[in-house]
């Protein structure tokens, strides 16, 4: 009995002091860098981490383009950010990452109306659920939105990022990427799974592999690309999971809602590593890295495989018709 109690105590202490801080990505960023004269795009800036990061960058004086699928929610978020920061250079723009047409229209609009792009934050995403849905272009929607949508957007804006260098690309990923050890290249954009988080995990490791290969292709341009694990955050991360079907899936979702409530960060803390990646001077020449808890960290071995990263990049180019 005593032995069992000791084991349970050791596990509990380990979870509290090591796993939970790592998984939640808890950190505070205290940098005071100004962004006056800089232009930033934040996808999915209508809520959660995206909205909080957009507000932080606006507070620093940046011109912030909030790129969202729902213009109603985007306009409301922009109004909030303007009121909080007194920065009138915060703009709402239509962007549906599940539509290649919408992405191309947004990129063209941006090039027609803006003179520079200093920071691109690929934040928007679809989370875990055990029901597969399709994007407008027929892709499984987690891979289609979380990776391929941002992949196309980034590539369409690379010329402006290069012209504005030094500039930065920040792609949000997740610690859950460790559960993926095979991207299933035969069905990259249409992998089917009954597991709630399988396709989400695949899209999140794709984010890391994308910046790994992209950083090599951008070497010497003054443009950096890094992936960020924001931690376990009490935002709308579980919105997709609520669309799951079946008793086990819905029970798991309710359980995770409790976990998020007990140990998850609020949106402000969840946005800290994103802001760190976007503005910290020490990262000006750092590229192709995985960032967590406001520092450089190490992703899974599969996420560090350069051959896999190149294969993913080349296949993604074909899928989005670049």
Automatic annotation (TrEMBL):
This is Retinol dehydrogenase 13. It comes from the Eukaryota. The keyword Amino-acid biosynthesis does not apply. Gene3D superfamilies: NAD(P)-binding Rossmann-like Domain. GO terms for molecular function: oxidoreductase activity. SUPFAM superfamilies: NAD(P)-binding Rossmann-fold domains (SSF51735). The keyword Membrane applies. It comes from Trichoplax adhaerens (Trichoplax reptans). The chain crosses the membrane at residues 6-24. Pfam families: adh_short. Keywords: Membrane, Oxidoreductase, Transmembrane, Transmembrane helix. InterPro entries: NAD(P)-bd_dom_sf (IPR036291), SDR_fam (IPR002347).
């Amino acid at each position: 009995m005593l032995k069992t109690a000791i084991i349970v105590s050791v596990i509990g202490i380990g979870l509290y002091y090591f796993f939970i801080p790592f998984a939640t990505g808890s950190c505070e960023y205290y940098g005071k860098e100004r962004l006056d004269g800089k232009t930033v795009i934040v996808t999915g800036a209508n809520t959660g981490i995206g909205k909080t990061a957009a507000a932080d960058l606006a507070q620093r004086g940046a011109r912030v383009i909030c790129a969202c699928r729902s213009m109603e929610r985007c306009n409301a978020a922009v109004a909030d950010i303007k009121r909080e920061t007194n920065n009138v250079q915060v703009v709402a723009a239509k962007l549906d990452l599940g539509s290649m047409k919408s992405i191309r229209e947004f990129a063209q609009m941006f090039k027609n109306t803006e003179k520079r792009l200093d920071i691109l934050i690929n934040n928007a995403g679809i989370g875990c659920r055990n029901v597969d849905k399709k994007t407008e272009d027929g892709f499984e929607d987690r891979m289609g939105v979380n990776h391929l949508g941002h992949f196309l957007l980034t590539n369409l804006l690379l010329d402006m990022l290069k012209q504005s260098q030094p500039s930065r690309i920040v792609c949000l990923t997740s610690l859950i990427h460790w559960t993926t050890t095979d991207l299933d290249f035969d069905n990259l954009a249409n992998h089917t799974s009954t597991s709630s988080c399988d396709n989400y995990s695949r899209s999140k490791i794709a984010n890391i592999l994308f910046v790994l290969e992209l950083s090599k292709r951008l070497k010497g341009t003054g443009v950096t690309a890094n992936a960020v694990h924001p931690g376990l955050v009490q935002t709308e991360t579980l919105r997709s999971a609520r669309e799951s079907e079946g008793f086990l899936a819905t029970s798991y979702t309710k359980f995770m809602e409790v976990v998020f409530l007990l140990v998850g960060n609020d949106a402000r803390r969840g946005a800290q590593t994103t802001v760190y990646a976007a503005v910290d001077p020490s990262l000006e020449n750092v590229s192709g890295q995985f960032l967590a808890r406001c520092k450089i960290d190490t992703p899974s071995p599969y996420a560090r495989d350069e051959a896999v990263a190149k294969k993913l990049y080349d296949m993604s180019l074909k899928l989005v018709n670049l």
